[in-house]
Design goal:
This protein has one domain (about 5-120). Helix content is about 55%, strand content about 20%. It is built from 3 helices and 3 strands, in the order αααβββ. The protein is rod-shaped, with a radius of gyration of 26 Å. The model has no long low-confidence stretch (mean pLDDT about 85).
């Protein structure tokens, strides 16, 4: 095999790496989106816990549990936050429910729900 034909074969292969890389980009994007979605789920669960504690604190002081919940979460999650409260045995129990946002349109990940109980302030 002559030197000239070897160089010619290499020049034809130069674009192969670029094509293989372009084929792998969708896989990388999917993995990145899955990582971001998992982070959003964890963050929403943490925010639901914070909302439940703040709502229970507000309700124990005879204030609105819903307002306490909404004020405790990030502003972009506040519209999708609801709190339910129940009284009994000198304590208040608040359950906060926060819708989990999705970065993929059409996919629903449900809600994150956390409960907190605080004694009533007499």
């Amino acid at each position: 095999m002559s030197y000239g034909s070897e160089r010619k074969g290499r020049r034809r292969d130069l674009g192969q790496v670029a094509i293989e890389y372009l084929g792998f980009i969708p896989v990388l994007i999917l993995v990145a989106m899955a990582g971001v979605q998992i982070g959003l789920i964890a963050y929403t669960a943490q925010q639901a816990g914070t909302a439940a504690r703040a709502g229970a604190r507000a309700a124990s002081l005879r204030e609105s549990a819903q307002t306490g919940c909404e004020n405790a979460v990030s502003s972009w999650l506040a519209d999708n936050t609801s709190c339910g409260e129940g009284f009994g045995d000198g304590a208040v129990t608040v359950t906060a429910t926060v819708d989990i946002p999705s970065i993929v349109p059409g996919w629903d990940f449900g809600t994150a729900q956390k409960t907190a109980t605080m004694p009533l302030d007499h």
